[in-house]
Every structure is written in C-alpha cells, then in structure tokens.
Design a protein that fits this description.
globular; binds 5-amino-5-deoxy-1-O-phosphono-D-mannitol; 13 helices; 5-stranded parallel beta sheet; 364 residues; EC 2.6.1.16; alpha/beta
C-alpha cells in the first residue's frame, strides 16, 4: 500500500508531480484557465468588495499564498482567516463577499462552522477540497477539487501543492475577468504553470543535499525559517511540517522582522532555513542571511538555480529549478517537506502518525 516507500508521507511527496498534473488537467486548455466548476462572473467580482479565505493549518498556509496572488494579479482585496478565529469573532462579512474555504478533508470542524456562518449571511462560498462528497463539498455553492488522490499521512504535502495550484488558477481567472492582467502576463503564467509537474520531478530526482542538511541539523533544539513575500508564506508551511513530525521547536519569520526581536534567539549553530526565491527581495534576504550568520547561525538557503551569489553567505544551498517567482511556492515547499521528513526519520519519529495529531480535526 505504500508502494515500496517506507512511509506514506514520502510516497505522497513523490506523488506531487502527478497530483499537480491531475489538478490542472482539463482546467488549463488551449492556453486558458477553464474552471467550469466555478462560475463567478465579473459582476460578482466587482460587487464582492473583498474575498475572504478561511482554513486551518496547512490549508491556511495555502490561503496565505492565495491572498498574495489574488491581490497581485486580480487587485481584489483578500482577507485570510484562521477558521477558529473567524468563527468566534464578529466578522466583517456581507452577502456580496466571496468566500473561499480550503480544506483537504472537507471535514474540519472549525472550517465547517466558519463556512456555515458565511452561508448564513448569504455570501457566495467556494470550496477547495480534496475529498469528493465531503461535508464541505456538499454545503459549498461551488467546489474546486484538488485531484491529489487520497492523503493518508497526517502531515499534509500533496494537498498543499495542489491547493496552491487551485489558488493560481483562480487568481488568473479572476484577474482575466476583471481585465487586470495583460495577455502576455497571462500567457507567461499559464506556460510556467504547465511546467510545474516536470520541475517538481527534478527536485525529487536530486535529494542528496536535502538529506545532508537533515543529517547535519536533526539534533537541533530549535530551527528557524525566514523569507520575504511569498517566501515568508512558504516558510510558515515548512516550519509547521518540521514541528509536527520531528517535534523540534520551530518558528517562521518575515525576514525583515528578525531585527525586531527574534534575532536575539540566534546562537552559535542555530539552524536557519532561509528562502530567497523572490526576485525583487533577493538582496534584502541576502542581508538578513548575513545578519544571522554574524550571530553564529548555520544557514540552509533555498534559492533558484543560477542565483549562485547566495553561496558566499549560506552554509548550504538547495537550488530549485528556475521558475517565474510568483509560482515558486509550489516548488520551494518540496525541499522543505523532504527536509522535515528526513529530520524526523533521523530522529526515529513516527512520521505518518505524529503524537497528539489526527489527520482530520473533527473536534473543536
Ligand atoms: O483537512 P483540512 O485541510 O481542513 O485540515 C486542516 C489542518 O488540520 C491540516 O492542514 C493540518 O494542519 C495538517 N496536519 C498539516 O500537515
């Protein structure tokens, strides 16, 4: 059942190229996004005022990327909310708002409760879920399925990458309907999206350096993640993966925030995973790497092929294939998933069933 792999998690990581391919198949046709499952009109988008993304855990982290790309491409304001926070406040929501619910299982109790609140005020609810027939899929107005296949490991991997892909397709669809994206930019993103499965496979074919980084750091008591912009969003997900399966204390920081407090935690040998894939932010992240290095950090950087300048500053560099930087999260997260996995295996942890966690959190 594990297809020759030692754990479901590593099997599911290896299924990411296929999951991406399946999720875009029939939705990217003749150079256009065709989300037939989602008939949001231009009028609805114009009237919406804002989009609200609601989710928990890894799905929430996919939402953080979603906010960034919808705002960037479609120029529609997006709030991204943790379901258990949203449901217990007096949220600012009205019937014109568009709500996107993200849930791999489609059964998470807080996410369901938040969704029902949104439906009650009459907002239009779109769900991104992986489970056909799940409660979320039955109750939402529209469903965009991630075709990742069953995800068994508690740590979510292929669901996240396909949730990201759905966010990109939606952002393109909205941007196009709103007339806010040029034909060239639209085509460029489509072409690069189509390459993602193949590029993800390249990462999976060359894991040696990631294994080495894990071997060098699995004894650490704390591991920090940092990045700017989309890299920060992925840093949060990388940090969560590590925490849940390796039990190592970890935090993710917006790199520019370090000097406002966190840098005080860096000691001789503290591992810092620094993500530096965003074009306009590369130099800025490089200076943050210098800052933590100066305090003794052991820096594992993730950068794009060709950005070799980073080798001067970081102790180890994991390269991802070059891609339009707005799409980088889909690739950057893969080495982070693998790193968390190798660290957990090196520590002898029960990777697929980490302590205290359930695959689907149906209690409140
Ligand atoms: O099924 P859902 O996507 O609604 O689940 C949400 C979270 O419980 C889930 O992503 C959790 O954070 C994972 N264990 C992360 O790997």
């Amino acid at each position: 059942e594990k297809g020759g792999y030692q754990h479901f998690m590593i099997k599911e990581i290896h299924e990411e190229p296929k999951a991406l391919r399946d999720t875009m198949a029939s939705r990217i046709v003749d150079g256009k996004v065709n989300l037939s499952d989602l008939n949001v009109t231009r009028e609805q988008l114009e009237k919406a005022g804002k989009i609200i993304i609601i989710a928990c855990g890894t799905a929430y982290h996919a939402g953080v990327v979603g906010k960034y790309v919808i705002e960037k491409l479609a120029r529609i304001p997006v709030d991204v909310e943790i379901a258990s926070e949203f449901r217990y406040k007096d949220p600012l929501i009205n019937e014109d708002n568009i709500v996107i619910i993200i849930s791999q299982s489609g059964e998470t109790a807080d996410t369901l409760a938040a969704m029902r609140m949104c439906k009650k005020v009459g907002a239009k609810v779109i769900a991104i879920t992986n489970v056909v027939g799940s409660t979320v899929s039955r109750e939402a107005d529209h469903v965009v399925y991630t075709w990742a296949g069953p995800e068994i490991a508690v740590a979510s991997t292929k669901a996240y990458t396909t949730q990201l892909l759905c966010m990109y397709m939606m952002a393109l669809d909205f941007a196009d309907k709103m007339g806010r994206i040029s034909a060239d930019e639209y085509q460029r993103i489509i072409e690069e999206i189509r390459k993602l499965p193949e590029l993800a496979q390249e990462i999976l074919d060359d894991k040696e350096i990631i294994q080495r980084c894990a071997d060098e750091t699995f004894n650490a008591s704390s591991i920090f993640y940092m990045g700017r912009g989309l890299d920060y969003a992925v840093a949060m997900e990388g940090s969560l993966k590590l925490k849940e399966i390796s039990y190592i204390h970890s935090e993710a920081y917006a790199a520019g925030e370090l000097k406002h407090g966190t840098i005080a935690l860096i000691e001789e040998g503290t591992p810092v995973v620094a993500l530096a894939t965003q074009k306009g932010l590369f130099e800025k992240t490089l200076s943050n790497i210098k800052e933590v290095k100066a305090r003794g950090a052991f820096v594992i950087a993730v950068a794009m092929e060709g950005d070799t300048e980073i080798e001067k500053e970081a102790d180890r560099v994991i390269y991802i294939p070059r891609v339009y930087d707005i799409l980088a999260p889909v690739l950057v997260v893969i080495p982070l998933q693998l790193y968390a996995y190798y660290v957990a295996v090196a520590k002898g942890c029960d990777v697929d069933k980490p302590r205290n966690l359930a695959k689907s959190v149906t209690v409140e």
